Amino acid sequence: MKNISFKQILPYLAGIAIFFVITMVYFAPLLEGKQLLQSDIMNFKGAAKEIMDFRDRTGTEPLWTNSMFGGMPAYQISTAYKGNQLGILDKIMTLGLPHPANILILYFLGFFILMLVMKVDPWLSIAGSIGFAFSSFFFIIIDAGHNSQAFAIGYMAPVLAGIILTLRKKYLWGGLLTAVFLSLEIKMNHPQITYYLMMIVGIFGIFELVDSIRHKWFKSFALSVGVLMVAAALAVATNITSLWATYEYGKYTIRFKSELTDDQHNKTTGLDKDYVTGWSYGIGETMTLLIPNVYGGSSSAKVGRNSEIAKALEKNNVAKETIDNYTSQRLPFMYWGSQPFTSGPVYVGAIICFLFFLGLFIVRGPVKWWLLTATILSIVLSWGHNLMSVTDFFLTYLPGYNKFRAVTMTLVIAEFCMPILGILALKEFFDPAQDRKKLMRGLQLAAGITGLIALAYALVPGAFLSFVSANDTNYAQQFPDWFMQAVRDERMSIAKSDAFRSLAYILLAAGSLVAFWYGKLKKEFVVGILAILILADMLTIDKRYLDNENFTTKSKVANPFTPTPADELILKDQDPNFRVYNLTVNPFMDASTSYFHKSIGGYHGAKLRRYQDLIEKQISKNNLAVLDMLNAKYFIVPDKDRVPTVQINTGALGNAWFVKGYRLVDNADQEISALDKFTPADTAIIDKSFNSLLSGYSGGRDSLDMITLKSYQPNRLEYEYTAAREGLAVFSEIYYPKGWDAFVDGNPMPHFRANYVLRAMVLPAGTHKLEFRFEPKVYYTGEKISMASSIILLLLVAGAGGFEIFRALKKKE
């Protein structure tokens, strides 16, 4: 075995160094001790405050929180799955860098590994990694705080690398890399991105299967699939706690079929159709892959003093102070696409689009076709309600597809596949064995198609675009016609500017390849030029959405919410467990209230389905009886000056109460409707499926019966009660059947659902202690399996590495 020289490893070290430098330059505020202020992380800190405080105080996981939506499992909010021991590998992959630099370096290194496995030379792999990493959506989600999503995207490429390596008969290392990276992918806990990765792998697998049959290597393909199945099983076992808990919990969330039978045309076996397709990319909006702000960019954007809006304001003699105000603040007018709002476009890059088309003309074999198929599928699916026939088909027939919202996110697949094919195109173009005439013909076609599209949008954008938003009707009621015309003119100006910009980058990239083709520039120079052009193209767009101004002091990030006088007044209440209904914010899209109190509302994409039904059918209609039964002790409302003030709800029923009797109903429809007019202090609404647990109970309540909460923890509630006779108690706690157990004087007792979302029990007469404990078996059993599996995986990696070193030393001897 030959000794590995420094010259051989230099490109790999250079790649890591280049990635590191780019990362730290982009995120330079980190070097000043600043941190990124992310809106979703602020909401996360509000949602997870009770969980993290309990964890810090006790060293254990509560697994439940009462701080949002009346109460819900903590699995998808903040749960430490300590059984999975692969965190050290994640630290290695992200070079131990601080957030969000760790995400960008993962984008780079993950794609770099994939390119190397696909036999692309290191220098070209560096250029490809830059093109992939700087896709605009990947930075927009960092700014928003979608960290788990970003990390999951980062691990997509190395998972595919492991699969490809396995199919090349590198069974040991291919299988191990697949197991490790798939385990890390799942560990990031963003099932939607993992689902899209599986779609990519599925399409890839189909083409590989067909190819193996054609070339009669099906036996090795089958063996590879077997190895990959073992790797996948190991990755799943390593993450079994989170997967199992999510699967179990998912059946009770908005991601599963509703029990209500109304609005059936809008329902699926998962999320409602309008919820899934609420964010759908416009068909014409797909052009943002090539021209970033062709549809205006962000819903909230600044315009300069040279903008059409500023010129119109000056022309109409608007005061200078007003003009300064318009041009210094973010305005809501620029984006005019079909989405309700957006933080920015999905921009793959003008050069990457050009190279993608080049790949379509010069790359041969199944790799081109599976990348093209996946790209087209992702684009079509992103159109959502703009192509509802296709969306309906996938929502109905593709298993699991209806569990995820925001179909625009399917464009992640295109953002992943297009750079791969683009770099493979460059690999072919630089290969001296290829037909030079075919290469030039492909170059001319790719540059011609992408260049002419950009030129057309630059010269005559009005021929393709209306520049009219659905929201313009509302704006027209607030602003004069000349102002709205200026808004449309500014939209056109932005589109033209970015179209010329994309055209320039296409011509520069194509020109460098022409220079190589004619022998004017060496490959190394052209690769370097392309890498710099790709970086310049992508980075300047990303800076529009994530720049130094998005960073702030550590203290502000650590303490995102400041209590209002209303909050401070409520915090003086020593009652350990009551709820707050905050109407000074959007209560069901905001977790700031949860930072200080136990909230009726919250912010989460997987809330309990029945609680969502309660929001839609009762709480949104201001049903005070429902708020009483939820123990909403305080309302925070705005006064005439929009200042938050406190109102005490004297009708709040407290933590638990005995009722006089109950009313049986046949189904969920009747159960939710019965809450329209009922007195929760006297009557419990109970589904007939729980009738057996009421056997022998005759009803009634003594005036001296009482039940009191004595001790509160999110996962453990202790009560004392006195009842003159057997009584039916209702608790202002959310019913969830998977993990909550009730005990009277230490003896297990059954409980059941009442009032659509609450817990209820028939309690024996006398004075007793009652306890609710949340002890889900899925967590405690899963953690044991996860611990064992992750240790096995780490030992396999260490053993394989040790074996390779031993074999190398033996050969050297």
Quick synopsis:
The protein has 813 residues and is α+β, with helices and mostly antiparallel strands. The protein is built from 30 helices and 18 strands.
Task: List the topology elements.
Elements: H1 6-26, E1 35-36, H2 39-58, E2 64-65, E3 72-73, H3 87-93, H4 101-117, H5 122-133, H6 136-144, H7 147-154, H8 156-167, H9 171-187, H10 191-214, H11 218-238, H12 240-250, H13 273-276, H14 308-315, H15 320-328, H16 350-362, H17 366-382, H18 388-397, H19 411-429, H20 436-459, H21 472-476, H22 481-517, H23 523-542, E4 551-552, H24 554-558, H25 565-571, E5 579-582, H26 592-596, H27 609-617, H28 624-629, E6 632-638, E7 644-648, E8 656-659, E9 661-665, H29 668-673, E10 683-687, E11 706-713, E12 716-723, E13 727-734, E14 740-744, E15 747-749, E16 752-754, E17 758-763, E18 766-774, H30 777-812
Parallel strand pairs: 5-6, 9-10
Antiparallel strand pairs: 1-4, 2-3, 6-7, 8-13, 11-12, 12-18, 13-17, 14-15, 14-18, 16-17
Helix pairs in contact: 1-4, 1-5, 4-5, 4-7, 4-8, 5-19, 5-23, 6-7, 7-9, 8-9, 9-11, 9-30, 10-11, 10-17, 11-30, 12-30, 14-15, 14-22, 16-19, 16-20, 17-19, 20-22, 22-23
Commentary on this structure:
Helices cover 52% and strands 11% of the residues. With 813 residues, the protein is α+β, with helices and mostly antiparallel strands. The chain has a five-stranded antiparallel β-sheet with strand order 11-12-18-14-15, with no helix packed on it. A four-stranded antiparallel β-sheet has the order 8-13-17-16, with no helix packed on it. A three-stranded mixed β-sheet has the order 5-6-7. Strand 14 and strand 15 (747-749) form a beta hairpin. It is globular and about 100 Å long.
